[in-house]
Amino acid sequence: MEATTTAPVSFTQGAINELKRLHSDPSFDTSKVLRVGVKGGGCSGLSYVLGFDDKKDTDAVYEFEGVSFVMEKAHELYLYGMQIDWENGLNNRGFAFINPNASATCGCGSSFAV
């Protein structure tokens, strides 16, 4: 899978490390690709998508510091400039999304409005 253009989103070093750890797990399905995107729903209108999925014909392929991922081109409008972080604290554990395009976010951090 070769990157086509400059990545619209970035990952912190913590997120890169966690994604590489997940990918190196012996049970990881190597036929899946990392997907970044949005879907309708959530308390603020849109929810983030971050997971391993099948590549679709409509996907654009990106790469950021060794992490390859796919995204539907239409989602770039909502996610351009976003940073994905990995939090590993006592109160929060998981991926966090820092999106400069969000006009509002919900308390859970996985839903936003534009």
From TrEMBL:
<dbReference type="InterPro" id="IPR000361">
    <property type="entry name" value="ATAP_core_dom"/>
</dbReference>
<dbReference type="GO" id="GO:0051537">
    <property type="term" value="F:2 iron, 2 sulfur cluster binding"/>
</dbReference>
<dbReference type="GO" id="GO:0016226">
    <property type="term" value="P:iron-sulfur cluster assembly"/>
</dbReference>
<feature type="domain" description="Core">
    <location>
        <begin position="9"/>
        <end position="109"/>
    </location>
</feature>
<dbReference type="InterPro" id="IPR017870">
    <property type="entry name" value="FeS_cluster_insertion_CS"/>
</dbReference>
<dbReference type="GO" id="GO:0030674">
    <property type="term" value="F:protein-macromolecule adaptor activity"/>
</dbReference>
<protein>
    <submittedName>
        <fullName>[Fe-S]-binding protein</fullName>
    </submittedName>
</protein>
<dbReference type="InterPro" id="IPR035903">
    <property type="entry name" value="HesB-like_dom_sf"/>
</dbReference>
<dbReference type="InterPro" id="IPR031108">
    <property type="entry name" value="IscA_plant_cyanobact"/>
</dbReference>
<dbReference type="Pfam" id="PF01521">
    <property type="entry name" value="Fe-S_biosyn"/>
</dbReference>
<dbReference type="InterPro" id="IPR016092">
    <property type="entry name" value="ATAP"/>
</dbReference>
